[in-house]
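Budget justification aside, the reviewers requested a transparent look at the raw inputs and outputs of the sequence design task funded under Objective 1. We therefore reproduce one unedited record. The lines immediately below are the structure tokens for a 508-residue chain.
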């Protein structure tokens, strides 16, 4: 194995699934395993086969169906665990049994209630039993970072002699820090005489927020494999984040001098799949895969990024599978960012028009956290065209229910004359729109309808946006109200007013 190559051991399906609230069905685990194979991880820890029938079935199915990575199963240092693990992973082309036992004094005395010699004997017996099934055997002394070094070095040497091919050093409770953990890895390499006969791995938890830092320090000090999860999910505060480790090694290859086989373009897709299936939302400011990781709102930043993205981006969004970065338009945005976004939307504006649009944009930005493209379209049309309110809503009545045909009556003032019509539809909004169409007599196609809450609570202000088209003309309309039906009708009339103005101006 090349000294510059770091093995990526993904335990999203085992340790990651132990996150509170994260429970995956067998088919969901297979779906994720397939995606992890596309991501090109070296090892997939598919589960803990003896822990439940569903865990066993998932590991077995993944071993049968997923090609490419090593498929590992976890087992305690007990004969029944190891036998059950082998029954599940034996179908894989490259199977691995990963066995573990706690070695720190707090675990040995209070959890296992055994002597160190008894623990060492159990570990050696477990590795030998696993070795009887397959060549690839991994051993983890649980809570290594709080284990006495003399005992830790002794048990590592013994299990390698028993046949272990991978030695994993877990910082099980995230107790260590980067300098300390790196020194531990270096000491293992220096003081365990047969360590060169096994791959040295690390598994860091994030209880103090240092899982990635500890893992990278371990790599700097000779670790050849890192165990990690997508989005950093896992027990308590989670595990070292796969995407952060991989992109740190890739972005700072000048410093670490290491590389992985990960197809980084698959990172975002994998992150979103894990978030969707587990229900664990990625925090917006999460490194690499958070919604804000490639987003820029500051006007100074936007100006620089538009000139050269390297000013504020140390990696490209494309490198993790995103199409582009995100220029967020809000109260901190500058004129340059707004101008670029308007150009992207196809608007050609004079300097005077841009000044007016920017002023209106800033007024709206004080009221809304983020300005969307639809908002810009309304502002531009308001500035560049004098929109005449031909159609004004006077009243509406809707009759609807689960066992009745929705019916709407709408009263509209058309050039100061009140007209009203009624119509039936598939729902109350559709019925209202059909009644309006009868009054307006302007054949249009409703291409898009969106509804979002502008405020929170039961009395939230709802905002409806609609896009309507007639021939080659397409306009956007918007309406707001605490009543969704009223907001929907206002949005439709707003669009019809804009379309009518456009047609009348063209006819002059």
């Amino acid at each position: 194995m090349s000294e510059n190559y770091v093995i990526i051991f993904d335990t999203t399906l085992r340790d990651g699934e132990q996150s509170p609230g994260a429970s995956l069905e067998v088919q969901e685990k297979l779906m994720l395993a397939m995606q992890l194979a596309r991501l090109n991880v070296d090892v997939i820890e598919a589960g803990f086969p003896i822990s439940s029938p569903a865990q066993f079935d998932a590991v077995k199915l993944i071993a049968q169906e997923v090609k490419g990575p090593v498929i590992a199963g976890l087992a305690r240092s007990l004969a029944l665990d190891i036998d059950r693990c082998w029954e599940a992973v034996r179908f894989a082309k490259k199977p691995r049994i990963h066995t573990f036992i706690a070695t720190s004094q707090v675990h040995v005395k209070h959890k296992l209630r055994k002597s160190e010699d008894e623990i060492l004997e159990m570990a050696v017996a477990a590795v030998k039993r696993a070795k009887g099934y397959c060549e690839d055997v991994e051993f983890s002394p649980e809570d290594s970072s709080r284990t006495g070094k003399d005992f830790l070095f002794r048990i590592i040497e013994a299990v390698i002699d028993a046949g272990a091919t991978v030695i994993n050093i877990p910082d099980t409770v995230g107790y260590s820090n980067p300098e300390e953990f790196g020194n531990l890895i270096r000491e293992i390499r220096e003081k365990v005489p047969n360590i060169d006969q096994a791959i040295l791995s690390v598994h860091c938890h994030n209880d103090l927020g240092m899982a990635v830092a500890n893992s990278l320090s371990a790599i700097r000090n000779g670790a050849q494999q890192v165990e990690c999860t997508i989005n950093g999910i896992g027990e308590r505060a989670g595990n070292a984040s796969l995407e952060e480790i991989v992109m740190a090694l890739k972005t700072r290859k000048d410093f670490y001098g290491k590389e992985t086989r990960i197809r980084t373009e698959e990172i975002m897709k994998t992150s979103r799949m894990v978030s969707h299936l587990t229900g664990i939302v990625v925090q917006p400011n999460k490194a690499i895969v958070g919604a804000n990781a490639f987003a820029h709102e500051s006007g100074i930043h936007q100006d620089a990024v538009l000139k050269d993205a390297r000013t504020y981006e140390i990696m490209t969004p494309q490198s993790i599978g995103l199409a582009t970065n995100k220029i967020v338009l809000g109260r901190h945005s500058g004129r340059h960012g707004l101008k670029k976004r308007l150009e992207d939307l196809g608007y050609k504006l004079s300097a005077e028009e841009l000044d007016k649009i920017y002023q209106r944009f800033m007024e709206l930005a004080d009221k809304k956290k983020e300005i969307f493209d639809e908002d810009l379209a309304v502002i531009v049309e308001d500035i560049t065209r004098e929109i005449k309110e031909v159609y004004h809503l006077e009243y509406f009545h809707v009759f609807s229910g689960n066992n009745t045909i929705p019916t709407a009556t709408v009263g509209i003032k058309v050039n100061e004359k009140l007209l009203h019509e009624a119509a039936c539809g598939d729902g109350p909004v559709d019925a209202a729109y059909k009644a309006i169409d009868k009054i307006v007599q302007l054949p249009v196609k409703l291409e898009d309808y969106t509804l979002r809450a502008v405020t929170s609570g039961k009395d939230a202000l709802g905002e409806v946006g609609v896009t309507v088209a007639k021939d080659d003309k397409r306009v956007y309309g918007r309406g707001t109200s605490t009543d969704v039906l009223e907001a929907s009708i206002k949005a439709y009339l707003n669009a019809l007013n804009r379309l009518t103005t456009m047609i009348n101006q063209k006819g002059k």
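The mean pLDDT is 87. The first helix runs from residue 26 to 39. Computational costs for records of this kind are itemized in the attached budget.
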